[in-house]
Design brief:
Elements lengths: L2 H11 L2 H9 L7 H14 L3 H14 L4 H15 L8 H26 L3 E3 L2 E3 L6 E6 L4 E8 L2 E9 L2 E2 L16 E4 L4 E2 L10 E4 L5 H5 L8 E3 L11 E3 L3 E2 L2 H10 L6 E5 L4 E3 H23 L3 H5 L2 E7 L5 H12 L5 E12 L6 E12 L3 E12 L5 E8 L4 H4 L4 H9 L3
Parallel strand pairs: 3-13, 6-11, 10-12, 15-19
Antiparallel strand pairs: 1-14, 2-16, 3-4, 4-5, 7-13, 8-9, 9-10, 16-17, 17-18, 18-19
Helix pairs in contact: 1-3, 1-6, 2-3, 2-6, 3-4, 4-5
Length: about 425
């Protein structure tokens, strides 16, 4: 099995304009090394082996650890000379198959670039002003996208190849070697000095399991975005125990603009793409729901306020619906007025859960006998009657499960961020 011959037909299936757009357009967000590889594969598909050879040499001069590029280059030279080697079995064959999967994932992304042009991930309903970037991961496509927040509008900035769980997405149990699917947030930054070389220049843990995971009985811990060993450029698409592994160069870029606690990480098993008008409509519809909840809270009418909460509601402190509403009646009885403002509001649709939203905000609360500010997160669910209701609400806090697996030398610093 020769890699170039396997890829020839796949690369040849790509529309020429699609591949050219992804290779040459800076708007694709694809790193220079990957664009060179795609250009070489495009040249192979067109039968221009001289151009392919020249492009691969340039690439390997820039990144000698790029195993896929090295194999394509060596394989192409053997094909040109007529000396073909069969790697169909054994350890060598397994390595070739893994590299072929990597190449196919990268080629698929080039084809996808034009298909999704002008569209945005459906999960990105509203970005808070403090969220300068949002990370979107597609496990099925082995792709990690970085969107920049430009006055509330997500703009594609980077598109990185990423390795994820050996058994795909939707983590359910500890040890299942799956990557979680959902809405998460970066909880800290672990320096390379606290880790082995396996993780490259550092790691960004995310808050798995989140509140929704816990309600679903999902277990496990230690889900990070991290790098690769120093002698490696990239791993195969499905090679981790659940984490997301980038090339070290790509991780270094991500580390530069990732803000702890403020960077969302949206992980899906296939991204739903929407055009801007459709996304705007969904955002406006949900904004009206949030506005009604806030106004009913300010009204001090607990019956009106309670209609926004599900009977299956549980607070972050594990208070159920009946106790929650009972407490609100007691508290509101002493109020002559309530004013609530929501700042730094973000809203994300939950991947794989069409009836779930994750809402975060800074809440400023003022009444005749209490004034306070807190950062809160809510989970809203559209129930059987078609009405959106809150099923979970509470201050943003790190849970013990979200600290498991983090080296103790880094854990104290991450814990302080929870203040």
């Amino acid at each position: 099995m020769v890699l170039v011959l396997c890829l020839f037909g796949v690369a040849g299936q790509l529309p020429a304009q699609t591949a050219s757009d992804a290779i040459r357009s800076s708007k694709s967000g694809i790193p220079r090394e990957e664009r060179l590889l795609l250009a070489a594969l495009e040249a192979i598909s067109e039968g221009d082996l001289d151009r392919a050879e020249s492009t691969l040499r340039r690439l390997l001069n820039r990144q000698s650890k790029y195993r896929l590029a090295r194999l394509v280059y060596a394989d192409m030279l053997m094909a040109r000379s007529g000396r073909l080697i069969n790697f169909a079995s054994g350890a060598a064959g397994q390595r070739v198959l893994a590299l072929r999967e990597e190449a196919l994932a990268r080629l698929a992304n080039a084809r996808h670039f034009s298909d999704s042009a002008g569209k945005l991930p459906a999960a990105l309903l509203r970005l808070a002003p403090s969220q300068s970037r949002v990370v979107v991961v597609d496990v099925s496509a082995a792709r990690l996208y970085v969107y920049r927040n430009v006055a509330g509008i997500p703009r594609l900035e980077q598109s990185f190849y990423v390795s994820t769980g050996k058994n795909g997405g939707l983590k359910r149990l500890e040890g299942d070697q799956r990557t979680p699917v959902g809405v998460y947030f970066v909880t800290g930054r672990i320096a390379a000095e606290a880790l082995s070389d396996f993780y490259g220049p550092g790691a960004l843990p995310v808050n798995y399991p989140n509140e929704w995971d816990l309600r679903q009985g999902r277990t496990g811990y230690g889900i990070w975005i991290h790098g690769v060993p120093s002698d490696t450029f990239a791993r195969s698409p499905k090679a981790s125990d659940g984490c997301m592994a980038l090339s070290n160069d790509n991780l270094e870029q991500l580390l530069k603009f990732t803000h702890v606690k403020n960077t969302p990480v949206i992980i899906s098993n296939g991204i739903e793409w929407l055009d801007r008008p459709a996304l705007d409509r969904q955002r406006r519809d949900f904004d009206r729901q949030l506005w009604r909840w806030r106004k009913d809270w300010e009204s001090r009418n607990v019956s009106r306020y309670a209609r926004h909460y599900s009977r299956s509601f549980r607070s972050a402190g594990n208070t159920g619906y009946a106790a929650w509403i009972r407490n609100k009646r007691k508290v509101n009885a002493a109020k002559s007025y309530i004013h609530v403002t929501l700042k730094d509001l973000s809203v994300f649709a939950y991947p794989g859960e069409p009836n779930l939203r994750v809402v975060s905000f800074t809440q400023n609360y003022r009444s005749n006998n209490y004034t306070g500010q807190s950062v809160k997160r809510q989970y809203w669910q559209r129930e059987a009657d078609g009405v959106w209701r809150i099923i979970s609400e509470g201050p943003v806090r790190l849970r013990p499960e979200q600290l498991r697996g983090i080296p103790y030398s880094a854990r104290s610093r991450i814990s302080r961020l929870d203040q």
